[in-house]
Amino acid sequence: MASLFSSIRLILLVVLLISCMVVEYNSASDLSQDFDITWGNERGKILNNGELLTLTLDNISGSGFVSKKEYLFGKIDMQIKLVPGNSAGTVTAYYLSSEGSSHDEIDFEFLGNLSGEPYTVHTNVYTQGKGEREQQFHLWFDPTDDFHTYSILWNPQTIVFSVDNVPIREFKNLENIGVAFPKSQAMKLYSSLWNADEWATRGGLIKTDWAQAPFTASYKNFNANICNNNSSLSCKFLVENLDPVNEEKLRRVQQKYMIYNYCTDKKRFPQGFPPECNAT
Ligand SMILES: *[C@@H]1O[C@H](CO)[C@@H](O)[C@H](O)[C@H]1NC(C)=O
Ligand SMILES: *[C@@H]1O[C@H](CO)[C@@H](O)[C@H](O)[C@H]1NC(C)=O
Ligand SMILES: *[C@@H]1O[C@H](CO)[C@@H](O)[C@H](O)[C@H]1NC(C)=O
Ligand SMILES: *[C@@H]1O[C@H](CO)[C@@H](O)[C@H](O)[C@H]1NC(C)=O
């Protein structure tokens, strides 16, 4: 009798454990459901049942991935751990883009550096094929020793770039003063790791040290709150704007960490700055 009870108990325990594993497995996001590795042969990998994605770069090739879905408005978050150590010359690009010659694009690019020197976060917004709206930042932490969250909020009113939920850049819809805004072309999410040592680190002065290869960037906890062109009734991000608290955070980050702003680069715009630069 006792042994029958204990085997029933054992069976129940096993069933319980298996069902917990199933629940856990289902609740973890599976990056292989969201992304295709598009280039680099075996240099892009989805690991741990889809929990982790890694891109690598060596002296032969970089690698990249693209989302299976396309988006028209939403809030997209990804945790990224950038190439550690001497990453000079490498660029990790992470961006939304539509296709074609008059494409729209919302860009993060992480420019590597020598060990101990700061990464540069390069941002840009293209509308109808035209970019030239660069802003660059240093970060307030080392982006290579852990994962941090990089987000793009995109709705009909505004585009907000955030790092660990702190806004670093806003590109408002200023169609009322003649600035085109991305709002009708759906975009996919792309990322790639590649060699750009002609320009990336200190303007190309520091080259990639191939003795450090392979270089690896890692991704996890992708989260997309997608509006899909207003089809989703629960799309609260469609009306989201920066509140005063976040406006203040944005201003402080820009004061302290911005290292380049096209809107203050007089040499580039001798005929005057683009109209969005003069709007507050
Ligand atoms: C690339 O790196 C590998 C490993 O360090 C080395 O054996 C190979 O010669 C290199 N190839 C080129 C084209 O530099
Ligand atoms: C979005 O919806 C509008 C209005 O329904 C439609 O005209 C447009 O083609 C749609 N765009 C995409 C990319 O689905
Ligand atoms: C690399 O470090 C130098 C020196 O601190 C800094 O000026 C530069 O902005 C950093 N980033 C890049 C990508 O060169
Ligand atoms: C989506 O809905 C918002 C709010 O109703 C509206 O302002 C916007 O023009 C719509 N956008 C598209 C692409 O249909």
From TrEMBL:
Keyword annotations from UniProtKB, A to Z: Apoplast, Cell wall, Cell wall biogenesis/degradation, Disulfide bond, Glycoprotein, Glycosidase, Hydrolase, Secreted, Signal, Transferase
Signal sequence, start to end: 1-28
Active site: E105 (nucleophile), E109 (proton donor)
Domain GH16: 23-219
Pfam families: Glyco_hydro_16, XET_C
Primary localization: secreted
Subcellular location: Secreted, Cell wall; Secreted, Extracellular space, Apoplast
Gene Ontology MF annotations: hydrolase activity, hydrolyzing O-glycosyl compounds; xyloglucan:xyloglucosyl transferase activity
Post-translational modification: Contains at least one intrachain disulfide bond essential for its enzymatic activity.
Presence of keyword Transferase: yes
Function, as annotated: Catalyzes xyloglucan endohydrolysis (XEH) and/or endotransglycosylation (XET). Cleaves and religates xyloglucan polymers, an essential constituent of the primary cell wall, and thereby participates in cell wall construction of growing tissues.
Family, as annotated: Belongs to the glycosyl hydrolase 16 family. XTH group 1 subfamily.
Name the UniProt record assigns to this protein: Xyloglucan endotransglucosylase/hydrolase
